[in-house]
Amino acid sequence: MMTPRQLGEDALVDRLTVLLASGPGVLEGPGDDCAVVEGPGDGWVTVLKTDCLVEGVHYLPGTPGEKVGWKAVARVVSDFAAMGAELGHLLVTMAVPGDREVEWLEGLYRGMNECAVRFGGSIVGGETSSLPEGVPLLISVAGSGRVKRDGWVRRGDGKPGDGLYVTGRLGGSIRGKHLEFLPRMEEAQWLVEHCALRAMMDLSDGLAKDLPRMAKASGCGFRLEREAVPCTDGVGVEEALGDGEDYELLFAVEDGGDWEKEWAERFPDLEVTRIGELCEGEAGSLDGGWDHFGRG
Amino acid sequence: MMTPRQLGEDALVDRLTVLLASGPGVLEGPGDDCAVVEGPGDGWVTVLKTDCLVEGVHYLPGTPGEKVGWKAVARVVSDFAAMGAELGHLLVTMAVPGDREVEWLEGLYRGMNECAVRFGGSIVGGETSSLPEGVPLLISVAGSGRVKRDGWVRRGDGKPGDGLYVTGRLGGSIRGKHLEFLPRMEEAQWLVEHCALRAMMDLSDGLAKDLPRMAKASGCGFRLEREAVPCTDGVGVEEALGDGEDYELLFAVEDGGDWEKEWAERFPDLEVTRIGELCEGEAGSLDGGWDHFGRG
Lengths: 296, 296
Known about the structure:
The structure is a homodimer.
Chain A: H1 4-7, H2 9-17, E1 26-28, E2 35-41, E3 44-54, H3 65-82, E4 86-97, H4 102-118, E5 122-131, E6 138-148, E7 163-167, H5 177-180, H6 185-194, E8 197-202, H7 207-218, E9 221-224, H8 237-242, E10 249-253, H9 259-266, E11 272-279
Parallel strand pairs in A: 4-5
Antiparallel strand pairs in A: 1-2, 2-3, 3-6, 4-6, 7-10, 7-11, 8-10, 9-11
């Protein structure tokens, strides 16, 4: 018998998604931040994403409902941002033990609503299921949005020689950022329009996990300049690579152009840092990062 | 402190959904089988739905993965059917303890894929999260589909005098039907085109819960002819009203027309039965049916 823990998250997902038949109208199936399917027409296509939060895994018991709700929606918004997409309509599945506080759940919904509205979306429905007492609460958010047919960004279209960049600073998210982060939606859309962007994803499992994923998807190797990695104050480079939950953008840009200067003028409060480049060869791995099933 | 168990499912959902702001392009928000939003144009709008299965609540441990997967998707398909909609693209969120069998999860994905393909849809992505050992596995399925702008059916558009009908037979689903049912998608689309259909929903929590919901949403009372309720062989009328998980259609039709005869020719293996009518007045309640938080 093989278990998810023995297999690890990426290999498990590979084994499961290979069982799925592709249907009509699918432009991007499993494997990227979001799926992309034929949609509204007039030059736009539809973007779909689901994600979930589990009590004790993604937040600690006792965290205010408002913060958990913000995070539940913001994680999905961050994935939309990583495709260069706009947020649309969201659905919420909540599985909750019957003995929880309704007031906490109301806070959760207020937090979800606040984040959805802040980024131009709305929650249009959902489903509530009971769990036995003592079982961790779970919230799943599914969203649809849209992106221009010629404007969406895969994680797998990087080329050797592309510069690798990240927004913001990495590491130490557990101190609070993981509950309060601002998805980089506006910044991502700006990048689509202002630089020769080739690949993009959001950093959720740590640069050490996510950078090799981008390189592998692009069929490239990568060179990481560890000393260039922008670290949160008080955080070392190991933590910056491994902590996860940064919700910053990792992206690959064809070299050249003046976009970094323009960025500094447009987003003076958010640094963007070149941390290396894609190169010929196979994507290696880096130590650290978050695997849901405990493989390092 | 108030808990979901004290409040009951419907009142909980009311308290939470009132916190949600409506956004642009929302034609039908929380409260019906699915949400409906502006979509692809050309006379079509988009239908969105999410649902979930929890081990020990919606299926017993030891149930083959294929059957659980079929059910996970079929429940969503049944909600699409109840709007008169077509199935499109699906996303899967799975939260699973790290010590489960990968082979069982593969069966789950095969079952989900089989049901999606059977009803014209496809699974385009998802998310996998770990749970601690000993916690029940949870699968959430979110779907998008489409329906003609002038062809979708609310649960709340019934009028006094409308005949109330159900497909199939009710009760006793736990003996096996709840894992193997065929969502009534083709039948629902036929009804949209062949009778003066005013309101429709699928029966998931039992006629005793769902019929009062339809009447209340329509601002009507109802008369139920209990002796007319079509019961599964070996099942009494109490169970037929209360067992739940029938996944049959409940619908309200303006009186008149020859559609029942046409139905019998088109669907000779699936009976349709008049069980009462909507009337003036307030919707009362019926004993029985399934409340997720244990209120009868």
